[in-house]
Amino acid sequence: MTQVGAARSGLAPRLLLAIALVLGTSAATAWLVAGAIGPSIFRTHLNSAKVVDSGSAIDHTAIAFRTASAVALAVALALGVLAAFAVSVLLSRRIGRPLESLATAAQGIAQGASGVRVARPDIGREFEALAFAFNRMMDRLEESERLRGRLLSDVAHELRTPVATIDAALEAIEDGVAELSPSMVAVLRAQGARLVRLSDDLAAVTRAESGEASLQFERVDVAVLVEVAMLSAADRARAAGVEVRKRVAEEPLAVVGDPERLAQVLGNMLDNAIRHTVPGGLVTVAAQSHDQGRGVAVSVTDEGEGIAPEHISHLFERFYRADAARDREHGGAGIGLAIVKALVEAHGGVVTASSEGVGHGARFEVTLPAAGLTDARGDR
After folding, report:
1. What pTM, to 2 d.p., does this model score?
2. Domains plus CATH for the chain?
């Protein structure tokens, strides 16, 4: 790439050549036109002035006319070439500097440099847009790299605990320190189930985010969806000492979606709320019409720990946890809300989170298009 770039001429010579070609073409055209039309016009003017055709005088005058025309064209061409050279140098510097800066930044990125940015050139909207797009691309790349690093770290941490537990248990059995008792088998099964759950969650969120999740669309009664989700979460809520209530509008509410995936969405939201609510706390599931009947809003509100403002925008990222230690203690891998977001968006909906701050609980709301005249959209 460097050798190819070195073999090619720079911007200034190309601009100069282009302008010189235009000037040369213009000069040649002017010369041909002057040679073809000039003499006849010249003689017409002489005749109009009643100049006597005295032979040598007329020839001398014609030669003077041609000479003056040639000198004028030559001087104009020379001045044009000088102006073209000056303009090409000026433009090449004005345009070349930001392009060289951009090329240098791109080469730095190719070599693994980070934090590379380019200054906004003050030479036109197009170059400003290019610099803005480049810097925005770098922001996205750095954010992706940061998330990738955190993803690998979190996956390693999630795998380390169950694998270490299983390895320690097996080593204890091999050394004769422990027996393969029912309690030991239960420990091994629990850690194995944790690994399977982590694998399934990662696969689910990947399929949903890539649009590869198979969705069977049909008309879904929201009241039934809420009831089933509450029944599924009843044991977990009871074990955590959390009360779960529902507040569903009396009017019929229906959406078009995959009932199993929507149940997974609401189940993940309930699990998250129960996990972050202290014993004796309350979790409320509400459903109501939204946007003058064009949508349905389903929310889960808890009286738990609340969320600091700086965490709100990151809650739906993979493995993101506002309180990592507490989430790991309660078995949370930080994938549930990422699955919620991916599945809701696959249904054409929106999920939001809000909290008044730490200690004031949190509210998660899913908004889906209401079922219209078409009750089912088929498979996706």
Report:
1. 0.56
2. 2-116 (no CATH), 150-210 (1.10.287.130), 218-369 (3.30.565.10)
